[in-house]
Amino acid sequence: MSDVSPMDVFTAILSRRSVRAFRPDPVERATVEHILSLASRAPNGSNIQPWRVWVVAGETKRRLSKKILAAHETDDSAQVEEYQYYPREWTEPYLARRRQLGKELYAQLGIAKGDQPAMKAQFGRNYVFFDAPIGLFVTIEHSMEQGGWIDLGAFLQTFCLAARGHGLDTCPQQAFSKYHRLIRAELDIPEDQIIAFGIALGKVDPEAAINRLAVERDPVEVFARFRWE
Question: Which of 42, 86, 148, 205 could join 155 via S-S bond, C-beta 3.0 to 4.6 A?
């Protein structure tokens, strides 16, 4: 396992971010297993533990990434996401937040507005897990309802914080959903499982421009209402 001293939970929360450029440094299997063990302590209804995880590294990850990239770079109109992640109709303030993030992300990379080839190439970086040495896919059974998906979110957050405890970073990636058929075939994932998201895991590349992106969050008074009396 990693010999990094675990950080306190407040530091882990404040330092967690979606990293989009990793160093190739290997991560030990024992470290991944420990992070997953900690993530399994996430809260979930009636202890149903609706998550399953598929970990890829080495040649398996390279082969899978190559196949997905090939589909991404050609006409992939036949590829359909397995579930609807974003709203079908955007409203405010969500649309403005999304546009602002995209604007800031592409500005860090020097990609001009409307440069579709460059934007598509950058999006394709998802499919090599942004060069992270470890990739994971988290799945959930089709039979699960919304409560199971809430539990999946708790699992994801706990995984990301546990990774920080090992001095590692992550990037949750719903982008893989579009290629669920390809991933399912490559990893022998049963048909009763929905591929909810991928996760890139590794050490951040501090020199990469994209990792200088700082995402703001609304202050508490914007999203919370108190009835304290």
Answer: 42
